[in-house]
């Protein structure tokens, strides 16, 4: 066996989306912020991202969280997030999974039935609470960075569909286009995942061509994430599906996207501080979203969201990079 690189991961799924936590193989990443470390990683190790995320080691839906040392006092560790198309500022499913892994494997010491875990991300420190039931983490609550609406009540034209109303919102640093599924002639059911992907990608292309988006603190922004969703029903359940990356549909209900939707429903008067919403994905699994408070971002009204979900450890992996392998850096068809 020949290899000049060796990586270890702990694998898990959160509400159905399978992910990996990269725990060993990189060494220390320089930088006094997660953003600086992500830039260093992108400049020096982007071939590691493609090699681990793409086939033959990964697949087009693979998302990997990279564990690094903390950058703020009191934090337990840091995370940066990568996928086949690049990097994310944050990811709720990966953060819930990382907190679960850290507590269940002893990377973070257990401190009672509700163990606090502080995680540094590019969007800022995330306070989490891992609630234990016996030897396992039953659920994790994320107390996240502010979420807010950037551009409300926008319209784009999509061929063969017509004018599509949408809203642009930010959740945990990620930018989302939020579209009611009925506006594109769909309902959120797993049997319609192909149509969901096609309509989501069509909306994303229309936004890129027709709708300039500017986000406070970021300036001009590209909208890579489109969420098709349904309004909360009488039980407070809102089904949704995220279209992301190279046309993938998230099986899970998207944690940062749930934050963005909470901000939208708060602005629309559908939810108030203290209210909760069940954000349900295509597999029927869900996150519980809660509006914990109100704040402002660059003079805009914003909310302080909380997301609660459950992750399950599925295994461990060890990956080798043979220097003679012609597919060493991965591929995507």
List the SSEs and their pairings.
Layout: E1 6-14, E2 17-24, H1 34-44, H2 46-53, E3 63-68, E4 77-83, E5 86-88, H3 92-104, E6 114-121, E7 124-133, E8 136-143, E9 148-158, E10 162-171, E11 174-180, H4 193-210, E12 214-215, E13 219-220, E14 225-229, E15 237-244, E16 248-249, H5 255-267, E17 276-280, E18 286-297, E19 300-309, E20 311-320
Parallel strand pairs: 2-3, 4-6, 11-14, 15-17
Antiparallel strand pairs: 1-2, 1-20, 3-4, 4-5, 6-7, 7-8, 8-19, 9-10, 10-11, 12-13, 14-15, 15-16, 17-18, 18-19
What does this structure look like?
With 333 residues, this protein is α+β, with helices and mostly antiparallel strands. It contains 5 helices and 20 strands. 19% of the residues lie in helices and 43% in strands. The radius of gyration is 19 Å and the shape is globular.
Helix content: 10-25%
**What is the CA-atom radius of gyration, in angstroms?**
19 Å
Low-confidence spans: pLDDT under 50, at least 5 residues? none
Which structural class do the helices and strands define? alpha+beta
Rounded to the nearest angstrom, the distance between the terminal CA atoms is 27 Å
Give, in order, the helices and strands.
EEHHEEEHEEEEEEHEEEEEHEEEE
User: Can you count the beta strands?
Assistant: 20
Gross geometry: globular
DSSP strand content: 35-45%
Oligomeric assembly = single chain
Output mean pLDDT. Answer: 96
Q: Tally the helices: what do you get?
A: 5
> Sheet bearing the most strands, described?
18 strands, mixed
């Amino acid at each position: 066996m020949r290899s000049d690189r060796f990586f270890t991961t702990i694998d898990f799924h959160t509400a159905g989306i399978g992910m990996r936590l990269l725990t060993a193989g990189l060494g220390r990443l320089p930088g006094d912020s997660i953003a600086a470390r992500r830039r260093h990683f992108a400049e020096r190790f982007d071939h590691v991202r493609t090699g681990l995320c793409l086939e033959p080691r990964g697949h087009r839906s693979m998302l990997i969280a990279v564990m690094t040392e903390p950058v703020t006092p009191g934090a337990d560790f840091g995370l940066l997030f990568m996928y086949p198309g690049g990097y994310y500022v944050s990811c709720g499913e990966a953060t819930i999974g990382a907190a679960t892994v850290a507590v269940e494997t002893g990377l973070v010491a257990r401190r009672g039935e509700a163990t606090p875990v502080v995680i540094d991300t590019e969007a800022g420190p995330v306070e989490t609470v891992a609630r234990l039931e016996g030897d396992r983490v039953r659920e994790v609550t994320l107390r996240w960075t502010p979420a807010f609406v950037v551009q409300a009540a926008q319209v784009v034209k999509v061929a063969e569909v017509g004018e599509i109303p949408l809203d642009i919102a930010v959740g945990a640093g990620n930018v989302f286009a939020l579209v009611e599924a009925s506006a594109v002639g769909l309902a959120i059911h797993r049997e319609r995942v192909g149509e969901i992907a096609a309509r989501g990608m069509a909306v994303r292309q229309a936004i890129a061509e027709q709708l300039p988006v500017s986000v406070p603190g970021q300036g001009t922004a590209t909208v890579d994430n489109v969420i098709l969703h349904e309004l909360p029903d009488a039980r407070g359940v809102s089904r949704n599906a995220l279209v992301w990356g190279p046309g993938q549909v998230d099986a899970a209900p998207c944690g940062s996207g749930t934050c963005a939707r909470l901000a939208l429903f708060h602005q629309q008067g559908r939810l108030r501080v203290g209210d909760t919403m069940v954000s349900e994905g295509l597999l029927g699994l869900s996150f519980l979203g809660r509006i914990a408070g109100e704040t402002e971002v660059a003079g805009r009204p914003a909310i302080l969201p909380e997301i609660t979900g459950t992750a399950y450890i599925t295994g461990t992996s060890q990956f080798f990079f043979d220097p003679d392998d012609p597919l060493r850096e991965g591929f995507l068809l």
